[in-house]
Each structure stands twice: as C-alpha cells, then as structure tokens.
Task: structure prediction
Amino acid sequence: MSAAAAAELAARQAYGRLVAILAARTRDVAAAEDALSEAFHAALRRWPETGMPENPVAWLLTAARRQHGHAHRHIQVRAAAEPTLRLLLEEAPETADIPDRRLQLLMVCAHPAIALEAQAPLMLQTVLGLDAARIAACFLTSPAAMSQRLVRAKARIRDAGIGFELPGAAELPARLDSVMNAIYAAFGTGWADLLADGAGGTGLVEEAIWLARLLVALLPGAPEPKGLLALMLYAAARRGARRDAAGRFVPLSAQDPQAWSRAFIAEAEALLRDAARAALPGRFQIEAAIQSVHVEARITGADRAAALLALYDLLARLSPTAGVLVARAAAIADAGHAQAALRELDGLAGELAGYQPWWATRAHVLGLLGEAEAAREARRRAAGLAEDPAVRAWLLGAQDHAGPRNQA
Result:
C-alpha cells in the first residue's frame, strides 16, 4: 500500500477517534483538527522514505499530539506549559491500543449549547473529516456560510468548556436523541438530493449510514440506534427500484422486489429483531417496523393494512409530527376507512395546506371515495408542491395510486 493510500485509509477509519482524543483535554476541536491535518501531511512526507509504521494510526496520534503541544506553547507559553507536558507524556508507542472516544465526540456535537442546524454538519466534519465545501453542497448552502457555522460551533465548544465525556444518566437520552436526529437529518438531506438527480446525495446518504453503524457499534445495548440504522437500510435497499429504465418514478406498490438489495433488507430485519429484544419501542424502531411490514406485504402479497395502522397509531402517540399524522391518515384509508381518513386530513388542513404529502394523501383518499374530480385537483396541487420532477410527472399522470407512505 502506498503512503498516500495508507494515510487516506487511516483518515477514513480513525479521523473521528483521533480528533476526539486530541480535543478531549483542551476542548478545542479546531486546534485538534489542525494538528491532525499537520500529522497527515507529515505522514505523506515521511512514510515514503521511512516505510509504513507498524501502527499508522498510533503514529498519526503521536505526531498530532506533538503538533498540538507545539501550538499551545506558541499561543501562551506559561499557561500552556503544564497541559503541553501532559500531552507529550501521554504519547503512545506505535503498538499501543488507541481508545475510541467518538461517542463522546458525537455527544459533544449534540450538546444543547450547539445550535441545532450546526449539529449534523459538525458530526460530519469532526467524526468523518468531510470538508466544509462538501458539507455545504449537501445542505444547500454556500461553503462560506457553512464554514462560519462550523467555526462558531467549535468556538462554542471551546468557550463554553463543554466536556468530552458521556452525559449523566438523566441527560443521556435527550443527547442520544439529538445525535440520532442529526444523523437522520443528514440522511434525509442526502436522500432528497439523490432522488432529485439520481446521484448527488449518494455520498451524504452513505456517510449518514456510516455514522449510524458507528453509533450501533459504540452503544450495542441501545435499541433505538439499531432502529435508526434499520430504517435507513430499508430505504437504501429500494434505491434501484425507485426509477424505471426511462427514469420515471415508481411507487412502492409497483416496485419489483427483485430489484431491492436483499443484503440490506436482511441486515435491517436482523437489527430490528435485535432491538425488539429490549422491549423499549421508540420512534425509529417503529418507523423501521413499518418499512418491514411494507417489504413483507410487497414480497408476499399479503394484506397487512391492519398491522400498518396499528404501528402508525403507536408512532402517532410517540411522535405526532406532520409527516406521521398524514401517513397515518393514509393507513386509515387503506384499512378500509376512507371517510375517517378524510376527516383526519380535514383536521390538519389549516396548518398543512402547503404540505405536499397532505395533498397527495388527500388525492388518494378522495379517489377511494369515488370523488374523481376532487382527487384530480388534489393531485395537481400535490404536483405543484413536489420538488422532484419524476414525482411531479407521476402525480400528474396518475389516475389512482397509493398515498405518500407508499411512494418510496
């Protein structure tokens, strides 16, 4: 393996671990990243001459710690003398095991003192090493604006003295929820881009799945991270079936299960079974269970409307968001209660009149009730609010179709 390839592999596998170790004592994420960057540059200069070290990650940690210590000395010699000595004395030999503190780093990124809109980008940069320009493209903002957002977040960590340790038992659930919500937000952003142009969001989707895998590995006894990962894997499994050969949108009800990734589905099912053993249902587990029932129904042809409605009832109690309530209305209609579903939608009309899935679901329900003209008008309204041209064309051309919960 070349020096460049080895450095790239180490960066991919250990970037977040090294940033977390370097920043744990000083609480300065930006300085830790600078020191690690210098260590990578040093590796590219020296490894071709000296050969690959036995433990490249430990070598990088040692080099970064030296750089980190030098930076502290230059900034404030007296004040930094003691922590600098501690940093240098902690240098590990190349064969030493390196602790994995990425969970602490994820929890730092989800600290309530960090602005919500900065949490997911901060995780992507500090744990995965993505640059601000790439993150900005994923979140539809300029590199300059994203850089400022990240700089402010890192300064907040430093200035507020946010500790690099796991929160206490009372704080952990809320912080874990923030981590999972940020990962899922990154996944959703990447997924929207992927569906819009067929490729643009792929990288961010993969990075979000990688973060979820990391969270599962770091918290093997927690069921909700497994539910989150399962939910994203179900979505990723159907990626190749969402468009036909001509690029037209294909709803779930018409997708060919043979085009789904069986490996992703099998992994998602195993994660969901493992999570269920804890008997602590949460939002992501229930959403993943809904996807599991959709998969079963599509593969076997079984009528699973009652099971879906029961899951949506539970989800609505735990997480009564607009998307969940609209999807529940579709489940009510598919369970044979279209009039009740229409009443549910009417009750949401005031706050969701500009919400595309509300109009798409309304079109579906009105179609079930035989109100063809009203259904066509609702489809036109839904199409006008759709950002994906393929979904827009499908809505305009559809005569009868399933609601938005069946679209993906």
Q: What stands out?
A: The two ends are 41 Å apart (CA to CA).
